[in-house]
Amino acid sequence: xxxxxxxxxxxxxxxxxxxxxxxxxxxxxxxxxxxxxxxxxxxxxxxxxxxxxxxxxxxxxxxxxxxxxxxxxxxxxxxxxxxxxxxxxxxxxxxxxxxxxxxxxxxxxxxxxxxxxxxxxxxxxxxxxxxxxxxxxxxxxxxxxxxxxxxxxxxxxxxxxxxxxxxxxxxxxxxxxxxxxxxxxxxxxxxxxxxxxxxxxxxxxxxxxxxxxxxxxxxxxxxxxxxxxxxxxxxxxxxxxxxxxxxxxxxxxxxxxxxxxxxxxxxxxxxxxxxxxxxxxxxxxxxxxxxxxxxxxxxxxxxxxxxxxxxxxxxxxxxxxxxxxxxxxxxx
Length: 332
Hints:
Blueprint: E1 6-12, H1 34-53, E2 57-63, H2 68-103, E3 110-112, E4 120-122, H3 129-164, H4 169-200, H5 213-226, H6 230-240, H7 242-248, H8 256-279, H9 281-284, H10 289-304, H11 312-331
Parallel strand pairs: 1-2
Antiparallel strand pairs: 3-4
Helix pairs in contact: 2-3, 3-4, 3-10, 4-8, 5-11, 6-8
């Protein structure tokens, strides 16, 4: 039997933008706009009725009037939390990079462990559980540090909509963020195994960068080609438009499981958008902080700048050209 579609219709009866604020920051004269609110409610009800007649399940969600000061406070709290998280993760990466810089000059037949404590093991020895754990933690922290800035607009939007719908915005937003980063933690697990495989085949050096120009060229060409695919464009579109993403996927969820699942979904779109760029870390160096920062900046720009300003295909062409150059270097 054909399934039914479920949507939410959001009706903003009285918003901050619809009313002028008084000197103390409170909404002024909401009664003056009562007629507009009733008209919006009537139109929304009519649309909902037509959708139900078409066997589309729908729910009307009224956005409540909220003081501008409350929204500003929520935004500041979320921004501070995201800034602190970003600062902590990048501090950890800088600590690891500094440790490798001091210890990596005279390693000989040893390889560094990303521990921050100068730990080394024989270069040809197999990986042990501790090394897997340290590399996994490194990738997890790196993914959180790289993706937190670009996920900021979506997280801020989720908290704002939660406040406007009368929910508990902070608790729900925390669950959304947890779901989002669970996807990237899963990606970090895969990246850890990929790094193990590359290390075992001697394709990575002490800085965890590619030792083969041919392999580096292959990764660049794959990443560049992926920028031209419809899957990449679909995932990027979902990541670029936070409010549209919420509208398409049922809107704000008041419950923890709902927010967690919505975060997982958004995280999956972001992985679909960015996995190829993350693979470039194996070329420029997994512990090359400058390379990490450049890729994080590229991801941020691709998400916050409209497509017509920074087309993915231009990035794809540049990556393919870089791959061709690396291949020529490898063949020479």
